[in-house]
Amino acid sequence: MSKISVGLDIGFSSIKVVSLLKDNDNFKLVSLGSIPSPRPGIISDSDTDLETLANSIKQLFAATKIDTKEVIVALPESKVFTRVIDELPYLTDNELSSAIRYTAEEFIPMPLADVNLNWQVLIRSNVKGGDAKTVVLVIASPKHVVSKYVHVLDLAGLHPRALETETIAVTRSLAGSNPFSPSTMIMQFGATTTDFAAVSKGLIWLTRSISTGGMALTRSLAQHFNFEANQAEQYKKIYGLMEDQLEGKVFEALKPIIDIIAEEGKRMIRAFETKYPQNPIKRVVLSGGGAKMPGFVIYLANAFGLEVQEADPWYSIVKDKESASRLVQDAPSYSVAVGLALRED
């Protein structure tokens, strides 16, 4: 049976939508589009700002000719609490529910009554015993954040089929559930944050998010060269981390911030390898709008000593030849929206 699925990624700098048609085992691209986010957008609590955002979403749906009202939407990693709990013994479902609530209180800095708590069992031993263990991915979404997204969708005339974190969506579009793909660290490089996820066999085993993203690079360039933000953004996109351009001056301005991100990535790789020494990270996939910055992939490959690839969320999607070449240009920035549209439930 054919079914349309729509993924909506409401980012800080842009809003993206992807519509896919599920036909038997294949997903076929129907429509996609992107529009700049109005500022301050989703981070605002003002009704006027949220109405402006909803109107932008309506415009995007009209421009892309998407008339499906049910959508899957991403919650930003910086607004949710994600943790892999791996020190649990064998537990029944009832015991697990209590244990998760007890453990969650340690890492969620707000009352549990104020969050939606979801979890996924990654490993559970079949029997009790000394070596038996349970590993669980826990996600807590603050209810006020969820209700704001639902409110914006309502204003835009849309209904949420599901809300999930950006990291879960990105993992689905870039790592899939292939049990043979190598253990991978996904770096989602956004406007205000960089999110890291260690993924193996299609499951997330470790996550981390830092509040350093593309806007920090733009600010650094603006200060360094005394530029307006728009000009700094252009220089970042054109010269990036190319040491042989403009006597390496752009590179020098960006390097300290890129090094903060790279150090966090190294820490993540080490933490994963300490927990799972038999299954080390073999590659890094760079996703998000900033992944296309010149020299970024090579710089990270040298920093990590690993293969680093630019994200391609379209690789398993059926598309016509004409759009295939066009999709390559912005591929990494669509990782979240494609992952959302690929969700099946």
From TrEMBL:
InterPro entries: ATPase_NBD (IPR043129), FtsA/MreB (IPR050696), PilM (IPR005883). Coiled coil: none annotated. This is Type IV pilus assembly protein PilM.
